[in-house]
Amino acid sequence: MSAHARISAITHRIVERSKPTRERYLERLRAAASQGVQRSVLGCANLAHGFAVCSPADKDALAGDRIPNLGIITAYNDMLSAHQPFETYPAIIREAAAEAGGVAQVAGGVPAMCDGVTQGQPGMELSLFSRDLIAMSAGVGLSHNMFDAALFLGVCDKIVPGLVIAALSFGHLPSIFVPAGPMTTGLPNDEKSRVRQLFAEGKVGRAELLEAESKSYHGPGTCTFYGTANSNQMLMEIMGFHMPGSSFINPGTPLREALTREAAKRALAITALGNEFTPAGEMIDERSVVNGVVGLHATGGSTNHTLHLVAMARAAGIQLTWQDIAELSEIVPLLARVYPNGLADVNHFQAAGGMGFLIKELLKHGLVHDDVRTVFGQGLAAYTVDARLGGNGAVLREPSPEKSVDPKVLSSIETPFQANGGLKMLRGNLGKAVIKISAVKPERHIIEAPAIIFHSQQALQDAFKEGKLNRDFIAVVRFQGPKANGMPELHKLTPPLGVLQDRGFRVALLTDGRMSGASGKVPAAIHVTPEAVDGGPIARIREGDIIRLDAIKGTLEVLVDAADMAEREPVVVDLSDNEFGMGRELFAPFRRAVGPSDQGASVLFHH
Fold first, then answer.
1. Residue 261 half-sphere exposure toward CB, CA atoms < 13 A
2. Domain of 428: which CATH number?
């Protein structure tokens, strides 16, 4: 069966599986859309509250039902580099909306937290839950029913998935995502990684480490490695939520502002008051979701999206599974080498041809659906472009290059970096897990070694510093799942395990926690479900048990007799230290209500 036919077959399978939930979703969406201009249902007192601070002209416009009003949901804060540029966006959007005969209001703000800041800290235990909280917060902003379309300003790890869930929950409204772009290139990522390993080995001090980190993360915009934040931007473009060519334009440039203005004007054009009504929930369908998964594989994107894409799809009534994601990975070749899967950063990816070239390659070989709806109003072929600044200050789009400008960073279907996307599902007597092998050397795709068990990442770090880990082993880091402690990313494990691997030991990680989109050269079976706190098999592993991780066959096994395994009582750990401090007590209801990893680790779609 051709790749195109296999993509179509998987898409059809998702459509059939999703019919009951998708049909109910569309019925609700169409009922909401049938009411017409939303604020027309508001009473006079309601409406007066909604435009009390507007100018007289805007009040006149909003008093009727012919002038569209854009609701801005912003993740602005000025602590985080990726979201700091959004400070000026509302003023730009209001001005552009006025030029186009519309109005724009900030409907609400949502929290935006950074895993880079909270890494290894108690606050990280709020991170995954912030996705669903962001969706709720955006829902509060849009619940005022004052708006004909929404513009979502967000970039990073949990923010964009949360905003997508909100956009699809308000799927009767058109929605456009407006990015801020990546920071300019700083210290090369491989050099940053080298200093981190030297610090882990005690060969450099904190001052040298901080200097390297500061040269890497040095200005406005997203971090430049290809983790979850930049995977988000790729997804928004290939799924049709961005204006074409807008994902990876640096902040503070004239083109960045022109794209923001264009997005505001386009949002006005696709409301129910115009001729191109494009409600987000109708626009995003099973084909759009498959396009997102294909883009993730083709670029070696973030493992976090095995959680987020599942949850995002469910917000539109679409039932995406890990099996779908794994099967698509087998079909889609890896076309990008961006750190941690290579030495380049996203600015190099953009310079090599970026999203326009990538989408052109995928379309050429039938690996993505062209017959989708997008905010631009045309199929996906409209996204095979480079965005430029025209002489009049408007956005000009030119066809993307036929060949990659830098084949070491961005390649063609004929000469991929590897035959598949490198994101696989593992199954076995330990449950289900995912693994990303695009940066793992082939000789490490199978690891069989005894278990060393830890109940925190600090415990592993301590054992490493004490010299207790100089041998072959699989680190079992358990009680790190969503119910246990909010499923924090376990980035602090990467340097010590990387050092041990470089010393020649065969090591791997097995965890019910997360390792994020920046997981790299050490094989890591992550998101193990059922998690330990639910009594999953991972809680029955004993020190010294032989574990076999086989990323080629897609299996994850503890080599213990089934009867022996069944007789073991799951280990129970006191998790009270995870329940208080740094806001964790506020999220106790989330820990109690959250669903399993393979269902998106969500409190919103788990019943």
1. 16
2. 3.50.30.80
Do 112 and 189 reside in the same domain of the chain? no
pLDDT over 90, % of the chain = 78
- Residue 519 is predicted with a pLDDT of 59
Q: What angle do CA 135, 141, 145 make, to 5 degrees?
A: 120
Give how far Cα 157 sits from Cα of 102, 144, 230, 324, 519, Å: 32, 27, 8, 22, 14
User: Is there a domain that residue 126 lies in?
Assistant: yes
Q: Is 54 annotated as a binding residue?
A: no
Last residue of a domain, one of 218, 243, 270: 218
- Quick one: pLDDT band at residue 211, thresholds 50, 70, 90? confident
Half-sphere exposure of 390 (CA within 13 A, CB side): 10
Q: Are residues 64 and 206 in the same domain?
A: no
Give the per-residue SS3 of 323-385.
HHHHHHHHHCCECECECCCCCECHHHHHHHCHHHHHHHHHHHCCCCCCCCCCCCCCCHHHHCE
> Do 146 and 257 fall within a single domain?
yes
Decide if 588 is inside a domain.
no
Judge if pTM exceeds 0.85: yes
Query: Residue 415 corresponds to which tokens in the numbers above?
Result: 């000469």
Q: For 484-588, where are the E strands, in sequence order?
A: 507-511, 524-529, 546-550, 555-558
pLDDT for 37 beyond 70: no
Compute the Cα dihedral for 354, 358, 363, 365 and give only its sign.
positive
Q: How far apart are CA 477 and CA 45, in angstroms?
A: 56
On whether residue 508 sits in a domain, the answer given is yes
> Which among 292, 317, 314, 318 has a CA at the least distance from the CA of 305?
292
Structure confidence at residue 79 (pLDDT)? 93
Q: What is the mean pLDDT of residues 129-155?
A: 97
Is residue 603 a contact partner of residue 130, using CB atoms and an 8 Å limit?
no
Structural domain including 198 reads 185-218
The answer on 196 and 165 residing in a single domain is no
State the average pLDDT over residues 59-69.
86
Tokens of 562: 């089934």
Q: What is the pLDDT of residues 316-359, one digit of tens each?
A: 999 999 999 999 999 999 999 998 888 898 999 999 999 999 99
369 and 486 fall within a common domain: no
Report how far apart the first and last C-alpha atoms of the chain are (Å, whole number).
37
Residue 173 sits at φ, ψ, to 5 deg, of: -100, 140
DSSP code for 534: G
Domain match, 359 and 438 both: no
Model confidence pLDDT, tens digit, residues 509-551: 999 999 865 457 899 999 999 999 999 999 999 999 999 999 9
Flag whether 20 is in a domain.
no
Cα 307 to chain centroid, rounded: 8
CA angle 562, 538, 581 (to 5 degrees): 160
3-state SS class at 29: helix
Residues 521 and 500 reside in one and the same domain: yes
195 shares a domain with 147 = no
Is residue 223 part of an annotated ligand binding site? yes
